[in-house]
Specification:
The protein is an alpha/beta fold and 263 residues long. It has ten helices and 16 strands. The termini are far apart.
Length: 263
């Protein structure tokens, strides 16, 4: 005798299996929601920060908004300290981070990344009246170096033999300590230095380049091939239609998607 519950149960199981095999890509979620949820520090000028009116602005913010436009959705920003920003992405508190995230091999174990959208290199930051020679790893032995907690600059600093590495929630805190002499140097993106020199009153200046050029990209949770394709397509369209160059020139006076030697 045919069990009347067998066929519906089997159909339900098959339907469930089919749904599991075709789980929604992040792109489907973003389209259905109508927003791209973007995380950044909001305290990292000129990449992302709040202006005199309290409005979030900066290079990363404009690039993120342009990408959201290309996806046909609204940009929705969350600001958070760097020390917890990657954990927040892993916990699905937002869809992407647009905050100069270096696409390191270690991070690629946890996240997928877009194509690079900025190529830059790490650089020392020192006090404006610094007269000591602080250029090589040997010069930094015994010196106090400030870096962002969990940043690739922290990893770089920890590799300098004999240096005392101090980690901070963000650039604001360690640049203040540098200006007041609590640390000897800091490490950050080379593109940050001209802004600091021109726009702030902090008595700091660019030091020597340190480390290798890095590609910064947009991380998101693994297993979303449609989303990755859409983000890369949006970036390529922004470069092709001149939007990227316009935004980059506004903030850096050059196209920072190209290697430093080609700008």
């Amino acid at each position: 005798m045919k069990n009347k519950f067998v066929v519906p149960l089997a159909a339900a199981l098959l339907a469930g299996a089919a749904l599991g095999a075709h789980a929604a890509d992040l792109l489907d979620d973003v389209k259905a929601r109508g927003t791209l949820r973007i995380a950044c520090e909001g305290t990292y000028p000129p990449f992302n920060y709040k202006d005199d009116k309290g409005q979030l602005t900066g290079f990363d913010v404009e690039i993120a908004r342009a990408i959201a436009d290309k996806l046909g959705v609204k940009a929705e920003f969350t600001t958070t300290e760097w020390s917890g920003i990657l954990a927040g992405l892993q916990a699905a508190k937002y869809d992407v981070i647009v905050n100069q995230v270096a696409a390191t091999d270690k991070r690629r174990e946890t996240f997928d990344f877009s194509e690079p959208y900025v190529i830059s290199y790490p650089q020392l930051i020192v006090r404006a009246n610094e007269t000591r020679k602080l250029e090589t790893p040997a010069d930094l032995k015994g010196k106090k170096i400030g870096v962002g907690q969990g940043s690739n600059y922290a990893d770089l600093a920890k590799g300098i033999e004999g240096a005392e590495v101090r980690t901070y929630p963000g650039a604001t805190e360690y640049l203040q300590d540098l200006a007041t002499g609590r640390i000897d140097a800091a490490i950050n993106d080379s593109l940050l230095i001209p802004y600091l020199r021109e726009k702030t009153r902090l008595p700091v200046k660019a030091g020597a380049p340190i480390g290798k050029p890095e590609s910064n990209a947009i991380p998101f949770r693994k297993g979303n091939p449609k989303f990755q394709q859409a983000i890369d397509k949006a970036l390529n369209e922004l470069k092709a239609d001149g939007t990227y160059a316009k935004i980059s020139t506004k903030w850096f006076e050059r196209d920072v998607s190209k290697p430093p030697a080609a700008r």
